[in-house]
Write a structure and sequence with these properties.
The structure is a homodimer of 109-residue chains. Chain A contains 2 helices and 4 strands; from the N terminus they run βαβββα. Helix content of chain A is 25%, strand content 19%. Chain A is α+β, with helices and mostly antiparallel strands and 109 residues long. The first copy, chain A, starts with 5 loop residues before the first strand and ends in a 17-residue tail after the last helix. Chains A, B: This is (2Fe-2S) ferredoxin.
């Protein structure tokens, strides 16, 4: 059993004025909301789910972004209803929320 | 192909004086060193490896800790030679460094 069955990282990076960044889209408040939802559902902690902040995840042009590991599924989101869907369908149910999913493939180098 | 082939998160959490925490063990400096090594090896970036800071990873009693996803392998480390080993053997070579590995299993709840 992995230490966390699913580990959700929210990018909360703040860039200079005018540059795209996740902090500008409520990342911190929505990360906090996701954590509270997981606690309320009784899935938060070792053996379950962890939700947490991260530094820049490196996908600023697609902000705001979050990633679920070990699945390696990347999401964007707008509001609490998007977070509800990620928590309930993916973190609890193991189902990828295709509507909010970002491409797996990195851009051509 | 996943966005990052391997994604290494360093816990850099700072807790109150006297409590165990990763920030006390040079996490920030050694994360920076790991990133520079990956850049020097030409593996840093989309399609390759990302090394970054994270908030508290929740394993304070085992500090300092870092985790490699999507593998879900947890490490502790002491110095630059440990970081070299994680970078060269795991991030480049895909081999788990058992010497530095933390248990997968969460503590009994």
């Amino acid at each position: 059993m992995p230490y966390y069955r699913r580990h959700l990282f929210f990018c909360e990076n703040q860039r200079e004025e005018g540059e795209p960044c996740c902090a500008r889209f409520g990342a911190s408040e929505l990360r906090q909301y996701a954590m509270e939802r997981c606690k309320a559902l009784g899935i938060f902690g070792p053996g379950g789910v962890r939700v947490q902040r991260a530094g820049c995840l490196g996908r600023c042009d697609e902000a705001p972004v979050a990633v679920v590991y070990p699945d390696g599924v990347w999401y964007t989101y707008v509001d609490r209803s998007d977070i509800d869907e990620i928590v309930e369908r993916h973190l609890v149910g193991g189902e990828v929320v295709e509507r909010l999913r970002l491409p797996d493939e990195p851009p051509a180098r």
